[in-house]
Every structure is written in structure tokens, then in C-alpha cells.
């Protein structure tokens, strides 16, 4: 009887090992890809959380979102993306000698048309806990909003982008390491 139980345990364990090896699938963490939308009576406020890296691209592909429009130009600028309502926010932070250059691509619609008339600010929390608000100005030539921080503290930075487009308020949350 002991041999029978021992044989059964070995067989069951082996079966579980093979089952685990065969599944080999990847698990996705949906909690980092949540997009929240909040409506108020006076105005509309939309908040999104950034998707970064390859998981963002995979999620967009799963939703049937094309990264190219009719002329074949790519929309991606290599940054973190938040899709909130009809708006597409893409945040790019690039470290430079004198600080960090911040770029925000604010686009709308299926064709990702640039929104040049927004009022945009970035609320930044640096790794040392300091809070800073930086206005982002529109660069008509590059079709993006830009700003710069001079803080050289190393570690994770948290960024909240606040944009107002024709009375509609948008918020996007991003992060980067320096």
C-alpha cells in the first residue's frame, strides 16, 4: 500500500512538472495598464497611468490600435504612452548634461493629430522628495510640448502631466529614472 501511495505521489508530481513546463505562457500585469476616467458636472477630467516598454506596444496591438496612420508614419516617439478618451499622451524624458529634457506629445483622434493649443504643466516629484511644477511650452516645429528640469538627483522621478484643452482637463501619470 505504501508503494502504491509513493508511486501515485511521484506520478502526480511528474505530471505537474510537465504541465508547468508545457504552459510556458507569460502572465500580464493589468494593474499597471489601468486608465481611469473621472467626469465632473462643470468639466471633464481624465486621468491615465502610463504604459511603458514592450507591454504598451503589445497591449495596443491587442486592442487593434494601429501605430501607423494612412501615410505610414509612426506615432510612437519612444516614450511612455497614456490613451485617455480621445487623447494620446506620450512622455519622453532624456537626460542631458545640465538636467533632464522633458517632451510631451499631445495628440487626438484616430490619426493622432497634434493638439497645439493646450495649457500644459508637469508636476514632478524627485527622488529626494522635492516637488516642482514646470510649465511645458509648445514647440511648433517639433509639434510637441517641452520643458527641462535641472535637478540631478539620481533615482525614480514621478511625473503628473496636467493639460487643459478647450476647457477639458487631462491628467497623465508617468515615471522615469535618472
Automatic annotation (TrEMBL):
Record's keyword terms, sorted: Signal
Matching PROSITE patterns: PROKAR_LIPOPROTEIN (PS51257)
Signal peptide annotation: 1-23
Keyword field contains Signal: yes
UniProt keyword annotation of Signal present: yes
Taxonomy, superkingdom: Bacteria
Compositionally biased residues, Basic and acidic residues: 60-77
Polar residues composition bias: residue spans: 37-55
Region of interest (Disordered), residue spans: 25-82
Identification of the protein by name: YtkA-like domain-containing protein
Origin species: Hassallia byssoidea VB512170
Amino acid at each position: 500500500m505504501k508503494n502504491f501511495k509513493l508511486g501515485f505521489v511521484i506520478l502526480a508530481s511528474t505530471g505537474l512538472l510537465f504541465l508547468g513546463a508545457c504552459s510556458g505562457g507569460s502572465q500580464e500585469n493589468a494593474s499597471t495598464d489601468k486608465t481611469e476616467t473621472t467626469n465632473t458636472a462643470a468639466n471633464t477630467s481624465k486621468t491615465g497611468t502610463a504604459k511603458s516598454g514592450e507591454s504598451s506596444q503589445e497591449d495596443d496591438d491587442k486592442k487593434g490600435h494601429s501605430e501607423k496612420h494612412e501615410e505610414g508614419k509612426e506615432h510612437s516617439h519612444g516614450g511612455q504612452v497614456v490613451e485617455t478618451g480621445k487623447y494620446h499622451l506620450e512622455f519622453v524624458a532624456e537626460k542631458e548634461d545640465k538636467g533632464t529634457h522633458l517632451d510631451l506629445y499631445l495628440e487626438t483622434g484616430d490619426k493622432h493629430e497634434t493638439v497645439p493649443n493646450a495649457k500644459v504643466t508637469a508636476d514632478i516629484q524627485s527622488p529626494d522628495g522635492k516637488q516642482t511644477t514646470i510649465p511645458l511650452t509648445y514647440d511648433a516645429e517639433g509639434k510637441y510640448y517641452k520643458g527641462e528640469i535641472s535637478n540631478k538627483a539620481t533615482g525614480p522621478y514621478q511625473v503628473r502631466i496636467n493639460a487643459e484643452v478647450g476647457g477639458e482637463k487631462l491628467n497623465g501619470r508617468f515615471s522615469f529614472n535618472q
